[in-house]
Design a protein that fits this description.
With about 290 residues, this protein is mainly α. It is about 70% helix and about 0% strand. It has a domain at about 5-65: lambda repressor-like DNA-binding domains (434 Repressor (Amino-terminal Domain)). It has 16 helices and no strands.
Amino acid sequence: MIETGQIFKELRTARKISLKEAAGTALSYSMLSKFENGDSDITISKLLPALENIRTELDEFVYLVRGFNPSEFSLLKKEIWQALDKEDIAYLETGYEREKENYQKTNREESFLKALIFKTYLVASGRPVDFNEDEQAFLYDYLFRIDIWGEYELKIFSDISPLLSLETYFRYTREMLQRIDFFDELASHRNMIHTILLNGLFKALEENDLNKVAYFDKQIQARFFEENETYLKIVYRIADGHHSYLRGQKEKGSVQIKRAIETFRFLDCHSSADYYQKIYQHWLIEFE
């Protein structure tokens, strides 16, 4: 990990901001100078205003301190997607067994959660997978002993959603919505919450459970997408088209779904278009 003071100095000097301006009223000139030279650390209560003084967001600073590397979770997801693209199912199976073994040796919760993520993508690859009672109990105990959900918990819930039945997903979502109020205005959290609600809407549509469809739709409407959340708005149009179809408005629903898929193609989002086209075709066969 790169020295935090060195990174701070590079950002400050790149913006042509003096030490005095960067220090402001939160810390002394000499304290900040020692921090930049690696002679001492500063507390987070002093770092935050100093970052504001050099017009740098905390997440930007953390990214640079990590050496331009994404988080461990992001790296894991990237490796999994690469394996899926290559249809390397052995990587997913090996990863699942490795993380299970790591958990048995170390009792680290992160290893168990990683094992569940590998299992989720085994489901996505078409493999029959059993989400056993021990795994269900672990996931519930882990998520719902946490009173304030951050981005990590939202990512875990979103990623593991294919393993959950509609009833379980519905119950988890209702509990989740009681635990997100600290961060629900942050853009990254909004996107995760929208994704979770859209996943629930599709689950309910697949099972033709109109009561739960109405619930998820109501929650989406209450937090409706901003103009810059175009991808999620297109996905919602597909789900809403399915809903219209189930309510007997077959032509309207089909037209809406096709237009949304065509929009993905127009934007060169061909993987998304192909994915939702397959869902649409499968759905037509099931409900015709």
